[in-house]
Design a protein that fits this description.
Number of strands: 14
Number of domains: 6
Number of helices: 16
Distance between the termini: 44 Å
CATH architecture of the largest domain: 2-Layer Sandwich
Radius of gyration: 32 Å
CATH topology of the largest domain: TolA/TonB C-terminal domain
Largest sheet: 6 strands, mixed
CATH class of the largest domain: Alpha Beta
Length: 429
């Protein structure tokens, strides 16, 4: 800009000779000075936006430790930017080996915020109803995630026409927009660029935290601009949203004389029937998975054993798990569940550092509400936190439930979770 001004003055050598021209020159210079100041302010704002650092990666914290950065500075940096990885026990142990002291480890524990699921929008619920998702599944999602809008009578009539049942409609009538938590707002600042849109949502949904100086300063450090900070200060203070789960009805009990189908665990080829309840080494017969037997009673000793009749009124004893009347397996008239939320299991830092790969095989029970109610590992453990990562992730999965004769039923499934590290040749694809 300075070179451009000098060149213009060189073409107009008479500026300094006449009073009138001097006045014109002063006005032009003032305008140019104002333009330069405005440009400098814009550049400063752009630089400030570019200086906002995303959450620290594991490698960045490692680099600070290996470069002998003071613990005080590392802690301050973590507190300012946060971290983008989960500080599991294995990860913290690795940082301890790299020289992290207690203050750094504590900062790491507090610097990670798990991903917060956004509330459902009116469009998402409309799409779920249109896709004929079971109403109880939509209800569960509303109760666990909340909504970001206030359902009107016109909206309720619209989704009723699309097939929404009374339970879903009643749930929506009682629902109110989920207020922003501080953690959710910080997450929005990390992932959403349109702060005017965030400010509008804040005014619509309200907040569940105090708009005091400390919280405003935390938002400002995360990159919140004046418009968003003003929206937070003027937002309604609401009660925090509490996720709920729909009540699950107790499974029907088995009564003496009921005909019950034998349910096998994945991998079992048959069901052993024992002749003596206290001596499970004496196998009387092996029945096929899916055979029907008559339940007589539960045995007091040992626990977990049921007395049954099979064949021509032969008496025997089986493990109670084979007689769970509420749990089936896909096939034989049972339509398998279909996933509607199925996140991938994250690799642990310890497994990545050790180069561990493999498959975790799980035995998963999906309840009639489409919720995973039980997870058991069937394969040999991989170690380094991968097994627990697989189990914790599968517990979060959601399904359209399995059905038998049109009614939702619980089923057991075999699930395989694969862990494979990307090779250098794969990273470019």
């Amino acid at each position: 800009m300075a070179i451009l001004v000098t060149q213009k003055r060189a073409r107009r050598p008479d500026y300094g000779r006449k009073k009138g021209c001097m006045l014109v020159d002063m006005v032009i210079c003032q305008k140019r000075l104002f333009t330069l100041l405005l440009l400098a302010a814009c550049l400063a704002g752009l630089a400030a936006a570019q200086d906002r650092h995303p959450p620290l990666s594991q490698d960045e914290v490692h680099d600070m430790l290996t470069q002998f950065t003071s613990s005080k500075k590392i802690v301050a940096t973590i507190q300012e930017y946060g971290i983008d990885f989960q500080p599991t026990d294995d990860v913290l142990q690795q940082f301890r080996k790299w020289g992290a002291d207690k203050s750094v480890l504590d900062a790491l524990r507090q610097g990670w915020h798990p991903e917060i699921t956004s509330p459902l929008s009116a469009t998402q619920i409309r799409m779920l109803v249109g896709a004929e998702t079971p109403g109880e599944n939509i209800v569960r999602l509303i109760l666990t995630r909340g909504i970001d809008f206030q359902p009107t009578d016109a909206y309720l009539n619209e989704i009723r026409s699309a097939g929404a049942g009374d339970t879903l409609l009643d749930t929506l009538r009682e629902a109110t927009p989920r207020p922003f938590s501080k953690a959710e707002l910080l997450q929005e600042l990390r992932t959403v660029k349109d702060q005017n849109g965030i400010a509008q949502e804040v005014r619509h949904r309200g907040i569940d935290f105090s708009a005091g100086p400390d919280n405003l300063q935390a938002l400002r450090k995360a990159g919140a601009e004046t418009s968003l900070l003003s929206a937070v200060q003027s937002a309604r203070l609401e009660r925090p949203f509490v996720a709920k789960t729909p009540p699950i009805s107790a499974p029907p009990s088995i009564a003496g004389g009921d005909s019950v189908q034998l349910i096998c665990a994945p991998g079992d080829s048959d069901v052993p029937v024992f002749s003596v309840p206290g001596d499970l080494g004496k196998v009387a017969i092996h029945l096929k998975c899916g055979d029907h037997v008559t339940f007589v009673e539960k045995v007091a000793t040992p626990p977990g054993v049921d007395r049954i009749l099979y064949g021509d009124h032969n008496e025997g004893y089986v493990a109670a798990a084979y007689l769970d009347a509420t749990i089936g397996a896909p096939g034989a008239g049972v339509t398998p569940p279909s996933p509607i939320y199925k996140p991938d299991a994250p690799y642990t830092a310890a497994a990545r550092n050790k180069g561990i790969e493999g498959v975790v095989v799980l035995w998963v029970t999906v309840g009639p509400q489409g919720i995973v109610t039980d997870v058991q590992e069937k394969s040999e453990p991989l170690g380094a936190g991968l097994d627990q990562s697989a189990i914790d992730t599968v517990k979060k999965w959601k399904f359209n439930p399995a059905t038998r004769d049109g009614e939702a039923v619980a089923v057991r499934l075999t699930v395989e979770i694969s862990f494979h590290l990307l090779k250098d040749a794969d990273r470019g694809h």
